[in-house]
Amino acid sequence: MHACNFGERKMGPAALLIAMLSSGLLLSMLPDFGGDDAQEDDDTYPENDPVEGELASDQLWDGESADPEVQITEDPEATAQHDVELTPIILTRGDDDYVGTSADEHIIGGKGDDTIVGNGGADRLDGWRGDDEIVSYGDGGRLSGNQGDDYLEAKKTNFGQFHIFGGLGEDTIVMHLDNEAGWGRQGFHVHGGDQADEFRFVGAGTTNAPMISRIEDFDSSQDSIWVDDEEVDLDALPSDMRIVNYLEQQWLVIDNNVMIGLEGVRMPAPAGVPTIMGGEEEMHFHMFPTDLASLQSVEYRH
């Protein structure tokens, strides 16, 4: 993993880049990522690595939902924030540091250990090879690490939802629980990948409106869940956390204000539960229970 001490990790390159944004110093230090290095062919690149000219632009689709607060996606590999077409910006094959603009952007890293920071908007930020650090504070979007032991961090600053994919490697995925009334209840839909991953939730005391999230592939035999730098033992939860059954699935509840689904990708929808695209699968983000406190606590089922 990137680091055992989570607090120290937050002071890494991405944190420094964010701190430098307001000074204007950062822009003068960044290289031109649009140069020849990003366009040269490299026979050592496998077929699925990004090479400019071979990657089509990404189409984002504005999903429809029975609930006007929820935007759903046709495909979990896409984000549904705005109905726009984004042209990818492909970084070099070195160790790049990149800070985006306030617009919606699609940034793709290369072979190196890249640091990619979104600067607002609903961005799609993709690492590739290397141990990447990818940070997005904004209106939702998508983060993916792909290969390597990656660090991915996301924080809502408005209405929106994040889809986060760790990919190959032992990844650290950090999700801030800040939420305000009017931002919508949707939070994070996350897929760690095949190896042991850390799912870290930060700021349980800053959730000022209900938030619902989902871990698609949590495996208690190798993955771990952390809340505010404390690892969570699902068999011996602290007093402010519990496990409940809701819509035929298990959920971790924090302070009766945060719900985190523990049983995977979208399942066949129970009776009365809205489906995605009129099919049989449930939506990513469900209605928050009217009275979460009334749901009975249960033991975690491994």
Determine the structural class based on helices, strands and strand pairing.
mainly beta
Radius of gyration: 19 Å
Distance between the termini: 24 Å
Q: Main sheet, how many strands, which sense, barrel?
A: 11 strands, mixed
Q: What ranges have pLDDT less than 50 throughout 5 or more consecutive residues? A: 1-11, 18-83
Mean pLDDT: 78
Write down the overall geometry. globular
Strand line-up across the major sheet:
3-5-7-9-11-13-15-20-19-18-21
Helical amount among residues, as a percent range? under 10%
> Strand portion, in percent?
25-35%
Task: Please indicate the count of domains.
Answer: 1
Order of helices and strands: HHHEEEEEEEEEEEEEEEEEEEEE
* SS element count, helices: 3
Number of strands: 21
Give a written overview of the molecule:
This protein has 302 residues and is mainly beta. It has one domain. It has helices spanning 6-9, 13-20, 25-29, and strands spanning 58-59, 85-86, 89-90, 97-99, 106-108, 115-117, 123-126, 133-138, 141-144, 151-156, 162-165, 172-176, 186-191, 198-202, 211-215, 224-227, 230-231, 241-246, 249-254, 258-261, 297-298. An 11-stranded mixed sheet has the order 3-5-7-9-11-13-15-20-19-18-21, with no helix packed on it. The chain has an 8-stranded mixed sheet with strand order 4-6-8-10-12-14-16-17, with helices on one face. Strands 1-2 form a two-stranded antiparallel sheet. β16 (224-227) and β17 form a beta hairpin. Mean pLDDT is 78; it is low at 1-11 and 18-83.
